[in-house]
Design brief:
single chain, alpha/beta, Rossmann fold, eight-stranded mixed sheet, 15 helices, globular, disordered N terminus, binds 2-acetamido-2-deoxy-beta-D-glucopyranose, EC 3.1.3.8, His_PPase_superfam, hydrolase, acid phosphatase activity
Length: about 475
């Protein structure tokens, strides 16, 4: 069976088969010239893995489970929630970044030296304040491009779930925030191609609290930041050392650890805009490791499993998507594409028990290995894809319906349910598991009875295409409430 996941394997087999050894006509050796299996495994060294959720998308490091459905199975329903694509810094972050740049240039240095030599020609990459908070549109990692490509790749993977001849409208759902809406549109154009305009009905769901549980961005009304969240500091030894190095190379410069953090933060977004940043090389990989950890801590304690209400928030989507999986393509649709923010998706992971550490993250050291690396969980464009699989019987498994979770294109089995084909979980077991462990959003968050008590928009949706494109229905950027 031919499928995308097998292209890599196919190419290396072909390379092996054509490598000839000796001169005997007709004899093709099995001994390859080049090592067919990569021995370098460099992804841990990639800066993309150490910049938290701020920089370009990268696939999750896999467990080695095949991405395609196992031989006996076909996907008959897909439910995805995706974060917006690569973006500019938020305007709320811009203030401290710009203050640090002013401090740098205010040092009066004429000729930059050492690791900062590039400052002799470098310029800041945001030349219009209006760009803050928006998707990027230049460079190889730009948010609009990567989102379109993701849509086109999913067309290859899930195109069989779109019955073009039916002429049916396909609803998609996005939270009401400009960059998220732009993401939904670009993804839709990628997936549906030039049928997008007439085929899709983009439903825009308000992010307001009055939506209660009928929301892609639900919140616990009384959920305050934890004390640890408020006490997190960027004054780390690694950043003090970096400041000292740059100051020594450039007499007159007086950077401190906070400034180093701000400069690293700023440079990550340069990748989203330009694809390349000289700043990345001004810091060591170990310093980037620490930078990544500041992002893990920030997420964990401020918007992650360290927040006691987090699972309850994620249970809204986990519960409603369970209903879709049980209904299946017979009673529900086959395709559910949804778009929101990073901190709307991480609660869902917690509710499902994916990427949830057993112990709180330490503040004074980095745990090795760590199961909570945001760069591996929710980069820009990060997404959780639930696949419903219809499987024939195999020698080891029964015929039936199975569920798999795919996080950033890596299959992530459930620890307490992986007996199905391809480490999947039978729908019956999945249902039991969620019914046992999902907290009740309404009671845990003391939801006001005047607002919607459950998610309903997947069943009651609008079939209008009015919001498919930016036009009279233009929705403005709404400030910095989310990331
Ligand atoms: C499952 O079995 C049916 C009946 O033999 C066959 O038509 C179908 O292609 C099989 N599905 C897969 C994914 O192999
Ligand atoms: C998509 O476009 C193709 C080519 O015009 C057409 O055959 C097909 O019916 C369209 N599908 C839908 C759902 O509009
Ligand atoms: C959040 O803080 C406010 C004000 O300090 C307090 O009244 C409220 O009870 C807190 N909520 C929770 C859930 O702790
Ligand atoms: C670094 O300097 C800035 C002002 O330039 C200041 O706001 C910040 O608190 C300083 N950080 C540390 C750790 O001293
Ligand atoms: C779970 O979802 C179903 C259907 O969407 C809904 O009727 C039910 O109220 C939800 N349960 C909870 C606890 O939210
Ligand atoms: C619930 O909402 C109503 C209407 O907005 C409001 O009057 C009431 O004070 C709210 N109750 C609580 C407990 O927040
Ligand atoms: C669907 O969207 C259209 C266009 O925005 C709007 O006029 C209509 O009222 C909406 N219908 C429902 C049921 O929300």
């Amino acid at each position: 069976m031919w499928s995308i996941g097998q292209i890599g394997t196919f190419l290396s087999v072909a390379a092996v088969a054509t490598a000839s050894y000796g001169n005997r006509p007709g004899y093709v050796s099995r001994i390859p010239f080049a090592a067919p299996y990569d021995q370098s495994f460099l992804e841990g060294y990639s800066v993309l893995k150490h910049i938290g959720g701020l920089g370009p998308y990268s696939n999750r490091m896999s467990f080695g489970i095949g991405r395609d459905p196992p031989d006996a199975c076909t996907v008959d329903q897909v439910i995805m929630i995706r974060r917006h694509g690569e973006r500019y810094p938020q305007s709320s972050d811009a203030e401290s970044v710009e203050a640090t740049l002013e401090k740098l240039y205010g040092s009066g240095i004429d000729t930059w030296k050492g690791d900062l030599t590039f400052l002799n020609w470098w310029t800041y990459y945001v030349d219009d304040e209006g760009l803050y908070g928006l998707e990027t549109e230049t460079g190889p990692y730009n948010g609009l491009l990567t989102t379109y490509k993701h849509g086109a790749e999913y067309r290859v993977r899930y195109g069989h779930l779109w019955d073009q001849d039916s002429g049916k409208k396909i609803p998609m759902w996005t939270s009401e925030y400009e960059r998220v809406i732009q993401t939904a549109r670009k993804f839709g154009e990628g997936f549906f191609g030039w049928n997008y305009t007439d085929t899709v009905a983009l439903n825009v769901i308000s992010e307001s609290e009055i939506m209660g549980a009928n929301s892609l961005t639900p919140e616990c009304p009384g959920d305050n930041d934890t004390a640890i969240c408020d006490s997190l500091s960027q004054d780390l030894p690694a950043f003090r050392m970096a400041a000292d190095r740059l100051n020594t190379q450039n007499p007159g410069l007086d950077l401190n650890s906070t400034d180093v953090f701000e400069l690293m933060f700023m440079s990550v977004f340069e990748l989203n805009v330009r694809g390349y940043s000289d700043w990345i090389n001004a810091f060591t990989l170990d310093e980037w490791k620490w930078f990544g950890y500041t992002q893990d801590l920030d997420f964990y304690y401020c918007a992650g499993p360290g927040d006691p209400y987090y699972k309850a928030v994620g249970s809204v989507y986990a519960n409603a998507s369970l209903t879709l999986l049980i209904q299946g393509p017979e009673e529900a649709q086959t395709i559910y594409f949804n778009f929101a923010h990073d901190t709307n998706i991480t609660p869902i992971l917690a509710a499902l028990g994916i990427a949830s550490p057993h112990e709180d993250l330490p503040l004074d050291k980095i745990p090795f290995p760590s199961s909570y690396e945001i760069g591996n969980i929710m980069p820009m464009g990060g997404h959780l894809t639930l696949e419903r699989m219809k499987c024939n019987a195999t020698a080891a498994t029964e015929e039936g319906i199975y569920v798999r979770a795919v996080l950033n294109e890596a299959v992530v089995p459930f620890n307490d349910c992986q007996e199905g084909p391809g480490f999947s979980c039978s729908l019956a077991h999945y249902t039991k598991m969620l019914n046992n462990k999902l907290p009740d959003f309404v009671s845990e968050c003391k939801l006001n009875s005047t607002v919607p008590q459950y998610l309903d928009f997947w069943w009651n949706y609008n079939t209008s295409s009015a919001y498919n494109h930016q036009g009279t229905a233009y929705i403005p950027y709404q400030g910095d409430g989310w990331a």
